[in-house]
Design goal:
The protein contains 13 helices and ten strands. It is of the alpha+beta class. The structure holds copper (II) ion (CU).
Length: 383
Protein backbone atom coordinates (compact mmCIF):
# COMPACT_ATOMS: atom_id res chain seq x y z
CA UNK A 1 0.00 0.00 0.00
CA UNK A 2 1.47 3.35 -0.98
CA UNK A 3 1.60 6.15 1.49
CA UNK A 4 -1.04 8.27 -0.18
CA UNK A 5 -3.57 5.45 -0.55
CA UNK A 6 -2.95 4.61 3.08
CA UNK A 7 -3.76 8.17 3.98
CA UNK A 8 -6.87 8.05 1.81
CA UNK A 9 -8.04 4.87 3.49
CA UNK A 10 -7.42 6.41 6.89
CA UNK A 11 -9.44 9.41 5.71
CA UNK A 12 -12.32 7.18 4.69
CA UNK A 13 -12.30 5.36 8.00
CA UNK A 14 -12.31 8.67 9.87
CA UNK A 15 -15.26 9.86 7.78
CA UNK A 16 -17.09 6.65 8.52
CA UNK A 17 -16.41 6.96 12.25
CA UNK A 18 -17.46 10.61 12.15
CA UNK A 19 -20.67 9.64 10.39
CA UNK A 20 -21.39 7.03 13.02
CA UNK A 21 -20.83 9.40 15.92
CA UNK A 22 -22.23 12.64 14.50
CA UNK A 23 -25.37 11.31 12.88
CA UNK A 24 -26.78 8.40 14.85
CA UNK A 25 -30.19 9.20 13.37
CA UNK A 26 -28.84 8.86 9.86
CA UNK A 27 -27.21 5.55 10.75
CA UNK A 28 -30.43 4.35 12.33
CA UNK A 29 -32.12 5.07 8.99
CA UNK A 30 -29.75 2.71 7.21
CA UNK A 31 -31.89 -0.38 7.51
CA UNK A 32 -30.28 -3.44 6.01
CA UNK A 33 -33.32 -5.66 5.95
CA UNK A 34 -36.18 -5.78 3.47
CA UNK A 35 -38.82 -3.18 4.31
CA UNK A 36 -42.28 -4.11 5.53
CA UNK A 37 -43.95 -1.74 3.10
CA UNK A 38 -47.51 -0.48 3.20
CA UNK A 39 -49.55 -3.17 1.45
CA UNK A 40 -50.82 -6.50 2.73
CA UNK A 41 -48.74 -8.23 0.10
CA UNK A 42 -45.58 -6.39 1.08
CA UNK A 43 -46.15 -7.53 4.68
CA UNK A 44 -46.58 -11.12 3.54
CA UNK A 45 -43.49 -10.87 1.37
CA UNK A 46 -41.57 -9.54 4.36
CA UNK A 47 -42.74 -12.43 6.54
CA UNK A 48 -41.83 -14.96 3.85
CA UNK A 49 -38.44 -13.36 3.56
CA UNK A 50 -37.89 -13.62 7.33
CA UNK A 51 -39.10 -17.22 7.44
CA UNK A 52 -36.76 -18.28 4.67
CA UNK A 53 -33.90 -16.25 6.08
CA UNK A 54 -34.20 -18.05 9.45
CA UNK A 55 -34.48 -21.43 7.75
CA UNK A 56 -31.24 -20.62 5.93
CA UNK A 57 -29.58 -19.44 9.15
CA UNK A 58 -30.49 -22.66 10.99
CA UNK A 59 -29.31 -24.84 8.10
CA UNK A 60 -26.07 -22.87 7.89
CA UNK A 61 -25.43 -23.27 11.63
CA UNK A 62 -26.11 -27.02 11.52
CA UNK A 63 -24.06 -27.69 8.39
CA UNK A 64 -21.10 -25.49 9.28
CA UNK A 65 -21.29 -26.65 12.90
CA UNK A 66 -20.95 -30.29 11.93
CA UNK A 67 -18.18 -29.40 9.51
CA UNK A 68 -16.17 -27.36 11.97
CA UNK A 69 -16.60 -29.85 14.81
CA UNK A 70 -15.49 -32.69 12.51
CA UNK A 71 -12.51 -30.75 11.26
CA UNK A 72 -11.38 -29.97 14.78
CA UNK A 73 -12.12 -33.22 16.60
CA UNK A 74 -11.21 -35.62 13.81
CA UNK A 75 -8.01 -34.04 12.58
CA UNK A 76 -5.02 -36.19 11.73
CA UNK A 77 -2.79 -34.68 14.43
CA UNK A 78 -5.19 -36.16 16.98
CA UNK A 79 -4.76 -39.53 15.33
CA UNK A 80 -8.18 -39.68 13.65
CA UNK A 81 -8.71 -42.56 11.24
CA UNK A 82 -11.09 -42.06 8.28
CA UNK A 83 -14.03 -44.46 8.14
CA UNK A 84 -13.93 -46.59 5.02
CA UNK A 85 -17.57 -47.34 4.20
CA UNK A 86 -18.77 -46.06 0.83
CA UNK A 87 -22.59 -46.10 1.05
CA UNK A 88 -25.13 -45.47 3.73
CA UNK A 89 -28.76 -45.82 2.72
CA UNK A 90 -29.82 -44.39 6.04
CA UNK A 91 -27.76 -41.19 5.61
CA UNK A 92 -28.91 -40.78 2.01
CA UNK A 93 -32.56 -41.09 2.98
CA UNK A 94 -32.15 -38.57 5.76
CA UNK A 95 -30.42 -35.97 3.60
CA UNK A 96 -33.04 -36.35 0.89
CA UNK A 97 -36.18 -36.41 2.98
CA UNK A 98 -35.38 -33.57 5.36
CA UNK A 99 -34.56 -31.03 2.60
CA UNK A 100 -37.69 -32.09 0.69
CA UNK A 101 -39.81 -31.42 3.76
CA UNK A 102 -38.14 -28.04 4.29
CA UNK A 103 -38.62 -27.07 0.64
CA UNK A 104 -42.30 -28.02 0.61
CA UNK A 105 -42.82 -26.21 3.90
CA UNK A 106 -41.37 -23.03 2.35
CA UNK A 107 -43.08 -23.47 -1.03
CA UNK A 108 -46.62 -23.62 0.33
CA UNK A 109 -46.84 -20.07 1.73
CA UNK A 110 -44.75 -18.72 -1.17
CA UNK A 111 -47.12 -20.23 -3.75
CA UNK A 112 -50.15 -18.89 -1.86
CA UNK A 113 -48.67 -15.38 -2.02
CA UNK A 114 -47.96 -15.70 -5.73
CA UNK A 115 -51.57 -16.69 -6.33
CA UNK A 116 -52.82 -13.63 -4.45
CA UNK A 117 -50.45 -11.40 -6.43
CA UNK A 118 -51.97 -12.67 -9.67
CA UNK A 119 -55.56 -12.20 -8.55
CA UNK A 120 -56.88 -9.11 -10.32
CA UNK A 121 -60.54 -9.61 -9.44
CA UNK A 122 -62.30 -6.61 -7.91
CA UNK A 123 -59.69 -4.11 -9.09
CA UNK A 124 -61.23 -0.70 -8.61
CA UNK A 125 -59.18 1.23 -11.14
CA UNK A 126 -56.53 0.65 -13.80
CA UNK A 127 -53.51 2.70 -14.72
CA UNK A 128 -51.47 1.97 -17.81
CA UNK A 129 -47.76 2.42 -17.15
CA UNK A 130 -45.41 2.84 -20.11
CA UNK A 131 -41.63 2.97 -19.82
CA UNK A 132 -39.74 5.33 -22.10
CA UNK A 133 -36.06 6.13 -22.34
CA UNK A 134 -35.98 7.73 -19.75
CA UNK A 135 -39.26 8.57 -18.08
CA UNK A 136 -42.55 6.95 -17.20
CA UNK A 137 -45.97 7.60 -18.67
CA UNK A 138 -49.17 7.05 -16.70
CA UNK A 139 -52.61 6.82 -18.30
CA UNK A 140 -55.63 6.55 -16.03
CA UNK A 141 -57.96 4.28 -18.00
CA UNK A 142 -61.52 5.49 -18.30
CA UNK A 143 -60.45 9.11 -17.86
CA UNK A 144 -58.69 11.68 -20.01
CA UNK A 145 -55.84 11.84 -17.54
CA UNK A 146 -52.43 10.85 -18.79
CA UNK A 147 -49.02 12.37 -18.27
CA UNK A 148 -45.29 11.80 -18.32
CA UNK A 149 -43.41 11.57 -15.06
CA UNK A 150 -39.80 12.72 -15.40
CA UNK A 151 -36.83 13.21 -13.12
CA UNK A 152 -37.34 16.32 -10.97
CA UNK A 153 -35.59 19.37 -12.26
CA UNK A 154 -33.56 19.83 -9.08
CA UNK A 155 -32.00 16.36 -9.47
CA UNK A 156 -31.65 16.72 -13.20
CA UNK A 157 -29.61 19.89 -12.91
CA UNK A 158 -27.48 18.61 -10.02
CA UNK A 159 -26.54 15.46 -11.93
CA UNK A 160 -25.02 17.37 -14.84
CA UNK A 161 -21.27 17.66 -15.07
CA UNK A 162 -20.28 21.26 -14.36
CA UNK A 163 -23.74 22.19 -13.04
CA UNK A 164 -22.07 23.55 -9.94
CA UNK A 165 -24.85 22.10 -7.78
CA UNK A 166 -23.90 19.66 -5.05
CA UNK A 167 -26.08 16.53 -5.35
CA UNK A 168 -26.00 16.13 -1.57
CA UNK A 169 -27.85 19.43 -1.25
CA UNK A 170 -30.81 18.10 -3.28
CA UNK A 171 -33.65 16.44 -1.37
CA UNK A 172 -34.41 12.95 -2.60
CA UNK A 173 -31.67 13.24 -5.18
CA UNK A 174 -32.51 11.05 -8.22
CA UNK A 175 -35.62 9.80 -6.40
CA UNK A 176 -37.96 12.64 -7.20
CA UNK A 177 -40.12 13.40 -10.21
CA UNK A 178 -41.99 16.37 -11.58
CA UNK A 179 -45.39 14.63 -11.62
CA UNK A 180 -45.87 11.60 -9.38
CA UNK A 181 -48.41 8.88 -9.96
CA UNK A 182 -51.36 9.73 -7.72
CA UNK A 183 -53.64 7.03 -6.31
CA UNK A 184 -56.24 6.70 -3.55
CA UNK A 185 -55.56 4.79 -0.34
CA UNK A 186 -57.36 1.47 0.42
CA UNK A 187 -58.14 0.92 -3.23
CA UNK A 188 -57.17 -2.05 -5.35
CA UNK A 189 -55.28 -0.59 -8.26
CA UNK A 190 -54.36 -2.62 -11.29
CA UNK A 191 -51.34 -1.58 -13.34
CA UNK A 192 -50.90 -2.56 -16.97
CA UNK A 193 -47.20 -2.30 -17.61
CA UNK A 194 -45.53 -1.99 -20.98
CA UNK A 195 -42.74 -0.05 -22.69
CA UNK A 196 -42.28 2.03 -25.78
CA UNK A 197 -38.64 1.40 -26.61
CA UNK A 198 -36.55 -1.04 -24.56
CA UNK A 199 -37.23 -3.18 -21.49
CA UNK A 200 -37.75 -1.24 -18.27
CA UNK A 201 -39.08 -2.44 -14.93
CA UNK A 202 -41.53 -0.67 -12.61
CA UNK A 203 -40.29 -1.21 -9.07
CA UNK A 204 -41.96 0.12 -5.94
CA UNK A 205 -40.36 -1.55 -2.91
CA UNK A 206 -42.95 -0.26 -0.41
CA UNK A 207 -45.69 -2.07 -2.35
CA UNK A 208 -43.60 -5.18 -3.08
CA UNK A 209 -44.27 -4.54 -6.74
CA UNK A 210 -41.66 -5.10 -9.43
CA UNK A 211 -42.73 -5.93 -12.97
CA UNK A 212 -40.88 -5.78 -16.26
CA UNK A 213 -42.11 -3.28 -18.82
CA UNK A 214 -41.56 -4.97 -22.19
CA UNK A 215 -42.31 -3.41 -25.59
CA UNK A 216 -45.13 -5.30 -27.30
CA UNK A 217 -46.26 -7.05 -24.12
CA UNK A 218 -48.60 -5.96 -21.37
CA UNK A 219 -47.83 -7.20 -17.89
CA UNK A 220 -50.27 -6.92 -15.04
CA UNK A 221 -49.73 -6.26 -11.37
CA UNK A 222 -51.84 -4.79 -8.59
CA UNK A 223 -51.43 -3.11 -5.24
CA UNK A 224 -53.60 -1.71 -2.50
CA UNK A 225 -51.84 0.79 -0.25
CA UNK A 226 -52.98 0.85 3.36
CA UNK A 227 -51.39 4.18 4.25
CA UNK A 228 -51.28 7.56 2.61
CA UNK A 229 -47.86 9.00 1.86
CA UNK A 230 -45.21 9.43 -0.77
CA UNK A 231 -43.40 6.31 -1.91
CA UNK A 232 -40.32 6.14 -4.05
CA UNK A 233 -38.93 3.56 -6.42
CA UNK A 234 -36.85 3.23 -9.55
CA UNK A 235 -36.60 1.59 -12.92
CA UNK A 236 -35.12 -1.82 -12.15
CA UNK A 237 -34.01 -2.99 -15.58
CA UNK A 238 -30.83 -1.56 -17.06
CA UNK A 239 -32.35 0.38 -19.96
CA UNK A 240 -29.58 2.56 -21.28
CA UNK A 241 -27.63 5.65 -20.39
CA UNK A 242 -30.43 7.33 -18.47
CA UNK A 243 -31.46 4.25 -16.48
CA UNK A 244 -30.58 5.89 -13.18
CA UNK A 245 -32.60 8.97 -14.05
CA UNK A 246 -36.15 7.62 -14.31
CA UNK A 247 -37.32 7.29 -10.73
CA UNK A 248 -40.87 6.43 -9.72
CA UNK A 249 -42.88 8.37 -7.16
CA UNK A 250 -46.36 7.39 -6.04
CA UNK A 251 -48.45 9.77 -3.95
CA UNK A 252 -51.09 7.85 -2.04
CA UNK A 253 -53.87 10.28 -1.12
CA UNK A 254 -57.02 9.94 0.95
CA UNK A 255 -60.04 9.04 -1.17
CA UNK A 256 -61.42 12.60 -1.00
CA UNK A 257 -58.11 14.19 -1.97
CA UNK A 258 -57.74 11.76 -4.83
CA UNK A 259 -61.27 12.49 -6.07
CA UNK A 260 -60.48 16.19 -6.06
CA UNK A 261 -57.21 15.60 -7.89
CA UNK A 262 -58.66 13.44 -10.64
CA UNK A 263 -61.62 15.81 -11.11
CA UNK A 264 -59.32 18.77 -11.52
CA UNK A 265 -57.17 16.89 -14.01
CA UNK A 266 -60.00 15.27 -15.89
CA UNK A 267 -61.78 18.56 -16.52
CA UNK A 268 -60.21 18.76 -19.97
CA UNK A 269 -57.20 20.56 -18.60
CA UNK A 270 -54.25 19.09 -20.47
CA UNK A 271 -51.57 20.79 -18.45
CA UNK A 272 -50.48 18.43 -15.76
CA UNK A 273 -50.34 18.61 -12.05
CA UNK A 274 -48.32 20.94 -9.91
CA UNK A 275 -44.67 20.06 -9.75
CA UNK A 276 -44.30 18.44 -6.38
CA UNK A 277 -40.81 19.68 -5.78
CA UNK A 278 -41.06 23.24 -6.97
CA UNK A 279 -44.67 23.92 -6.06
CA UNK A 280 -43.67 26.13 -3.20
CA UNK A 281 -41.50 28.38 -5.27
CA UNK A 282 -43.31 28.61 -8.57
CA UNK A 283 -46.63 29.53 -10.11
CA UNK A 284 -47.05 25.98 -11.24
CA UNK A 285 -49.33 25.99 -14.22
CA UNK A 286 -47.67 28.86 -16.00
CA UNK A 287 -44.33 27.25 -15.31
CA UNK A 288 -45.46 23.94 -16.66
CA UNK A 289 -45.27 25.29 -20.17
CA UNK A 290 -42.02 27.07 -19.66
CA UNK A 291 -39.81 26.06 -22.55
CA UNK A 292 -36.80 26.28 -20.31
CA UNK A 293 -38.15 23.78 -17.85
CA UNK A 294 -39.31 21.39 -20.54
CA UNK A 295 -35.98 21.70 -22.32
CA UNK A 296 -34.12 20.93 -19.11
CA UNK A 297 -36.21 17.82 -18.60
CA UNK A 298 -36.25 16.39 -22.11
CA UNK A 299 -33.25 17.73 -23.95
CA UNK A 300 -30.52 18.86 -21.57
CA UNK A 301 -29.24 15.36 -20.87
CA UNK A 302 -27.61 15.49 -24.29
CA UNK A 303 -27.60 19.13 -25.38
CA UNK A 304 -26.77 20.34 -21.83
CA UNK A 305 -28.45 23.08 -19.85
CA UNK A 306 -26.27 25.70 -21.53
CA UNK A 307 -27.16 24.44 -25.03
CA UNK A 308 -23.56 23.71 -25.86
CA UNK A 309 -24.00 19.96 -26.07
CA UNK A 310 -21.07 17.61 -25.73
CA UNK A 311 -19.61 17.63 -29.24
CA UNK A 312 -18.98 15.56 -31.19
CA UNK A 313 -21.62 13.18 -29.78
CA UNK A 314 -24.26 15.76 -28.99
CA UNK A 315 -24.18 18.89 -31.11
CA UNK A 316 -24.25 22.39 -29.71
CA UNK A 317 -27.57 24.10 -30.29
CA UNK A 318 -26.11 27.53 -29.65
CA UNK A 319 -23.94 27.19 -32.74
CA UNK A 320 -26.44 25.23 -34.79
CA UNK A 321 -27.30 26.50 -38.24
CA UNK A 322 -30.58 24.67 -37.90
CA UNK A 323 -31.57 26.44 -34.71
CA UNK A 324 -30.64 29.79 -36.25
CA UNK A 325 -32.17 28.95 -39.64
CA UNK A 326 -35.74 28.49 -40.95
CA UNK A 327 -38.04 27.11 -38.33
CA UNK A 328 -39.58 24.28 -40.38
CA UNK A 329 -36.43 22.13 -40.28
CA UNK A 330 -36.02 22.77 -36.59
CA UNK A 331 -39.60 21.63 -35.92
CA UNK A 332 -39.04 18.58 -38.07
CA UNK A 333 -35.96 17.31 -36.25
CA UNK A 334 -37.46 17.85 -32.81
CA UNK A 335 -40.68 16.05 -33.76
CA UNK A 336 -39.23 13.26 -35.84
CA UNK A 337 -35.65 12.98 -34.71
CA UNK A 338 -32.90 11.76 -36.96
CA UNK A 339 -32.90 8.07 -37.73
CA UNK A 340 -29.78 6.25 -36.65
CA UNK A 341 -28.73 8.87 -34.11
CA UNK A 342 -29.47 9.42 -30.43
CA UNK A 343 -31.81 12.23 -31.48
CA UNK A 344 -35.18 10.54 -31.18
CA UNK A 345 -38.41 12.18 -32.29
CA UNK A 346 -40.41 13.79 -29.49
CA UNK A 347 -43.78 13.98 -31.25
CA UNK A 348 -45.30 11.13 -29.26
CA UNK A 349 -43.88 12.18 -25.92
CA UNK A 350 -44.74 15.86 -25.91
CA UNK A 351 -47.86 17.81 -26.75
CA UNK A 352 -48.16 20.60 -29.34
CA UNK A 353 -47.88 23.41 -26.82
CA UNK A 354 -44.94 21.78 -25.09
CA UNK A 355 -43.01 21.26 -28.33
CA UNK A 356 -43.70 24.84 -29.39
CA UNK A 357 -42.46 26.10 -26.00
CA UNK A 358 -39.24 24.08 -26.25
CA UNK A 359 -38.49 25.18 -29.79
CA UNK A 360 -39.14 28.84 -28.94
CA UNK A 361 -36.88 28.46 -25.95
CA UNK A 362 -34.07 26.98 -28.03
CA UNK A 363 -34.30 29.75 -30.59
CA UNK A 364 -34.16 32.49 -27.99
CA UNK A 365 -32.01 31.15 -25.15
CA UNK A 366 -28.27 31.37 -24.61
CA UNK A 367 -27.98 34.76 -26.30
CA UNK A 368 -29.77 33.69 -29.49
CA UNK A 369 -32.70 35.71 -30.59
CA UNK A 370 -34.52 33.83 -33.27
CA UNK A 371 -37.62 35.86 -32.70
CA UNK A 372 -39.88 33.37 -34.49
CA UNK A 373 -42.76 32.48 -32.30
CA UNK A 374 -43.73 28.92 -32.99
CA UNK A 375 -47.37 28.25 -32.13
CA UNK A 376 -48.94 25.02 -30.98
CA UNK A 377 -50.94 25.15 -34.23
CA UNK A 378 -47.67 25.01 -36.24
CA UNK A 379 -46.82 21.77 -34.47
CA UNK A 380 -50.32 20.39 -34.98
CA UNK A 381 -50.01 21.20 -38.69
CA UNK A 382 -46.70 19.34 -38.88
CA UNK A 383 -48.06 16.15 -37.32
CU1 LIG B 1 -35.77 2.12 -17.56
Amino acid sequence: MTNSSGIRLAGKITTLLALMTIAPAAVADMVLNLRRGVTDISQTVYELHMLILWVCVVIAIVVFGVMIVSIILHRRSRGAEAADFSHSTKAELIWTIIPVIILVWMAVPAAKTLVVMEDFRDSEMTIKVTGYQWRWHYAYLGTEVDFFSSLARSSNIARQVRSGVDPFSVDNYLLDVDKPMVVPVDTKIRLLITANDVIHSWWMPSFAVKKDAIPGFINEIWFKANETGTYRGQCAELCGRGHGFMPIVVDVLSKQDYAAWIDAKDGGETVAMVDSTTAAEAPAVAEELSGEKLYNISCSACHQVNGQGLPPAFPSLVDSAMVKGPVAKHIDIVMNGRVGTAMIGFSTQLGDAELAAIINYERNAWGLNGGDTVQASDIAAAR
